[in-house]
Design goal:
heterodimer; A: about 350 residues; mainly alpha; ABC transporter involved in vitamin B12 uptake, BtuC; about 75% helix; about 0% strand; B: about 270 residues; alpha/beta; Rossmann fold; 6-stranded mixed sheet; 4-stranded antiparallel sheet; 9 helices
Chain lengths: ~350, ~270
């Protein structure tokens, strides 16, 4: 088929792209396990991952490198998948989990756990509180979606939740009398997968995986929304159910992701836009590649963070924001040209 | 043949009653025009028939089965709906856009069956879009995009098609082509209900017109009876030019009437 101007035929099948991205992801996962202070050759690495190597290598790989690698992949997958579904649902190319305030509410929950010292007593209180924050935001969003349901209302309520979360986070930092708590909050907000344990993986992974399944289940219905809500409903789409699925899936996946890693920005925004030129604009086809690609992107960013040897280690969220902001500006300018 | 029956239908938007006590029946093979001045409730009636607005009273039924008693997908296979405007939110290919019309037939994973593919090709061919099937809809002209969206509605292959202002923003050539396609769909046995503002097109192409005014059905019959000089004066507050060309009759709105004394909302305005 020809690729003339205005042609909207994709260059690559979704299955082919998912295959390529999966391969990249697996290579990055292996690469991520090899990086560290101790050099462990690849064969011993694989053995260590399955607990078949010497105890020292086993501990390094299983308790230090694996949780970090798994969390980076899970976080990226959840952000990419949620971004792809939300952009389709809200037919807004700038939508991502922060648009609905879910990331903000999760961050606030974590900050509260640090502020009141809960995180110091039992470390898992931090992600647990963050998930409670995301859950509360979800309840508000679901209530609004059921009641009025317009796309604009959802975005506005999401901005509201984001705004109040940022305000309360600032308040906590402002009122804190303990400089260590302030610095801990600030560092946590920057987002990282450093020094995470399997306990955190075990806590977040079920939520993230269930969330991803819900997001994938919602994907086929997104296409009809390209025609607007009335036409979509006339074609049999249950819009309240789709909205509820998108919100719940995003909360479970991105909420749990942010809960264990802090806020890692722009991945949810960028990933769908990187995928679209490759598989075409059909919203449902973007979701799975965005999940796999999101995992690969965050893991790659985490590898870069570890390889750059400048003073204190760069936080993951700082790097994604540094890369994401120019992309965001490019996108805004590009979309403006398209609309002009 | 499909029969749509509407009985004592009242529809509010929010708390405001927009349609009051509408009743009529219509059969397949008809191109039925919904006419009436702005704010008469034409689009609301179209949306209510498509099941997009819940009525406060009354029934919309297809072949005796109330819409409210049908599963969402069953209703979607019976009634295709083409909304106003030509927004497509993503730069989809024309074929992918038309394919969305098969929504009510798709399985869980959204894969198209050979029957779906055939229906998509038929709809593309009927709307004369085969040559631009791979083009991005957002890059098409307004007239071409309107044809893609109509083809999307035709791809449902439903016995009832409701089109809300399908020629609202089109140049004469594209408007005539769209009206021709709607006419053809009716001749194939479908009941086509179109909300129309262009009375010249409505009078020429439709078999029957229903005039709404302030939420009530005020006239129902052949175009020339509904758009008779008293009807035009009373409800549209215009005079018309009634004529015939090549044995087809037409009505052209001619002049706005400034003072129509008997119109209830304009009493006392007469100089």
């Amino acid at each position: 088929m020809t690729q003339g101007p205005g042609s909207a035929v994709p260059r690559l099948g979704t299955a082919a792209l998912c295959g390529i991205l999966s391969l990249v992801l697996v290579l990055l996962m292996l690469g991520s396990l090899t990086i560290g202070y101790v050099h462990i050759p690849l064969p011993r690495l694989v053995e260590a991952a399955f607990g078949l190597a010497d105890p020292a290598s086993g501990i390094i790989v299983q308790e230090l490198r694996m949780p970090r690698m798994l969390l980076a992949v899970l976080l990226g997958a959840s952000l990419g998948g949620a971004g792809a579904v939300l952009q389709g649902l809200l037919h807004n190319p700038l939508a991502e989990p922060t648009t609905l305030g879910i990331s903000g509410a999760a961050s606030l929950g974590a900050v509260i756990a640090i502020y009141f010292g809960l995180a110091g007593i039992v470390p898992l209180w931090l992600p647990a509180c963050a998930m409670i924050g995301a859950g509360l935001a979800t309840v508000i969003l679901l209530y609004v979606a059921k009641d009025s349901g317009s796309t604009l209302t959802l975005i506005l309520v999401g901005s509201g939740i984001s705004g109040i979360s940022i305000a309360l986070t600032s308040l906590a930092m402002n009122l804190s009398t303990n400089p260590w708590a302030v610095s801990e909050i600030a560092m946590w907000l920057l987002g990282s997968v450093k020094d995470r344990t399997f306990a955190e993986v075990r806590l977040a992974a079920p939520f993230i995986l269930i969330g991803l399944v819900i997001l994938l289940a919602a994907a086929p219905s997104l296409d009809l929304l390209a025609l607007g809500e009335d036409a979509a409903r006339s074609l049999g789409l249950n819009t309240p159910r789709l909205r509820a699925m998108a919100i719940t899936g995003t909360s479970l996946a991105a909420g749990a992701g942010v809960a264990v890693t802090g806020s890692v920005g722009f991945v949810g925004l960028m990933m769908p836009h990187l995928i679209r030129p490759l598989v075409g604009q059909v919203p449902s086809r973007i979701v799975l590649p965005s999940i796999i690609g999101g995992g690969a992107l965050v893991l790659a960013a985490d590898i870069v963070v570890r390889l750059i040897a400048v003073g204190p280690e760069l936080q993951l969220g700082v790097l994604t924001s540094l890369l994401g902001t120019p992309f965001f500006l490019y996108l805004v300018l590009h979309l403006r040209r398209q609309l002009a | 043949m499909t029969r749509l029956s509407i009985d004592h239908l009242s529809v509010p938007i929010g708390r405001r009653p927009v349609l009051r006590d509408i009743g009529f029946t219509a059969d397949g093979g008809t191109l039925l025009g919904l006419v009436g001045p702005n704010g008469a409730g034409k689009s609301t009636l179209g949306r209510a028939i498509a099941g997009l607005l819940p009525p406060s009273a009354g029934i919309v039924a297809v072949d005796g089965v109330p819409l409210s008693a049908m599963a969402r997908r069953d209703a979607a296979r019976l009634i295709a709906y083409l909304p106003q405007g030509d927004a497509v939110h993503w730069p989809l290919a024309a074929r992918a856009t038309v394919a969305l019309g098969r929504g009510p037939y798709l399985g869980r994973f959204g894969t198209l069956s050979p029957a779906d593919e055939a229906a998509i090709e038929r709809a593309l061919a009927r709307a004369d879009l085969t040559s631009m099937a791979d083009r991005d809809v957002q890059s098409l002209s307004g007239g071409e995009r309107a044809r893609v969206l109509l083809a999307r509605a035709l791809a449902v292959e439903a016995p009832i098609l409701i089109a809300d202002e399908p020629v609202g923003a089109l140049d004469p050539r594209h408007a005539l082509r769209i009206m021709g396609l709607l006419r053809e769909e009716a001749e194939r046995g479908a009941l086509v209900i179109a909300v129309l503002h262009d009375l010249a097109l409505a009078s020429r192409f439709c078999d029957r017109l229903i005039m709404l005014h302030e939420g009530r059905l005020v006239a129902d019959g052949p175009p020339h009876d509904v758009l008779s000089p008293p009807g035009l004066a009373r409800h549209y507050r215009v005079s018309g030019h009634h004529g015939a060309h090549e044995s087809e009759r037409f009505v052209i709105p001619w002049q706005a009437l400034r003072d129509y004394a008997s119109h209830p909302s304009h009493k006392g305005e007469t100089a």
